[in-house]
Amino acid sequence: MKVLVTGATGPFGRAVCRRLVTAGHDVTAMARNRPQTLVDGVAFTAGDVRDARAVTDAVSGCDAVVHLAWVVAPLKTEAATEEINLGGTRNVLDVMAATGCQRLVFSSSVLAYGAVPGHPPMLTETDERRPPREHFYAAHKKQAEDLIDRSGVDAVIVRAGIIAGRDVDNTIFRFFSSPALPVPDPDRHQQFVHTDDVARFTAEAVSHTHTGAVNITGAGTLTMREIAQIIARPLIRVPERALRTAIGAAWKLGVSELAPGEIGGLLYMPIVDTTRLHDEWGFTCAWSSRAALEDMARAAHGVVSLGKKTVTLPWRVSPGSTEHVGPLRAILLRRTYADEVNRVVRDIEQLVSEGRAEEGPTAAARLQLILDMAEHSTLLARIGDQARLPAHLVARAIQAGAVAKEGISP
Hints:
This protein is α/β, with parallel strands linked by helices. It folds into two domains: 2-165 and 189-221 and 259-292, NAD(P)-binding Rossmann-like Domain (Rossmann fold, 3-Layer(aba) Sandwich); 313-405, no CATH class. The protein is 45% helix and 15% strand. It is built from 15 helices and 15 strands. Helix 4 links the parallel strand 5 (103-109) and strand 6 (154-160). Helix 3 (78-99) packs parallel to helix 4 (136-151) and helix 12 (327-354) packs parallel to helix 15. The chain is globular and about 65 Å long.
């Protein structure tokens, strides 16, 4: 079969292309920019899914489309995000109808069910989908699924759990590679699926006869406590309201890719049933949830992320290492924390000068979360006083936070 893969140049897209080529398909990858390296045997066409002409040129002559092109971390406006996610999906569907291409495999997510409280313990493919509107990623996945259902094409909608693996680099990976994990409920469960399993299933779905939605996750679930142990990060219990406020502040200040509407994905990730995957599709994931996360932990082992900033550490001094922790590690960690503290303190000082009282508590919550993460970090404790934040900086931060929390007077 001749197969077009949109959004094919990321780690997951490359994995799908590799599987398709191995299966003997004629594969073309479509993306805005040509990557430095392509999977052997894959052709490339430059194009943006928002451009109907480019999509037409790419889809023409194809037997199937694997639609992966998507904005994961939301852009600053919903319209800009929607233009790619939903506008791009409409273009693909319109061109498929016009050219007679009838097989579509769409990369969706269990988040299409909605990361909200009150779901059944195990969601099936026929359960209600109710993602919050403010969670663009999830809401757009649900809307894209609806567009596909109405289009009449033979479609497979792949609802994947949290994708993990050593090649994954996404918002979830950066959250889990933070110096500490701030969570309201340490006993809440999560499911993971390895990128290799999702890629294998996606490639197989291209030539399969089944259609419709299908959940895919690895076997088993993990609590946040277990996750923290696996990725060697301390767990900090933070009230949900405080966490939402802090993440909102980080997003507003431009220091985090995690938008306020996405926090539900960390707090109330849907847990799904995979009976259809096993019984109807005859597919079994090779990686359990634990094994998939353990593989991602190998990549997170030498990385510390704080907001959009990531520090790669030498293996001898990476999180969880039993080796001696030296001055270099101390400098790297202290600089990461200090830079973020200074950034938020400066923002608070600007708010004070401009009299923007309503934004004070949000900035204070963000600052307090950073200080808490530094205080509870087992990595810093292992290093000792040499890596702790300077006393004068902590004092300045505490003073700024107190002013902001009480409200700033014009």
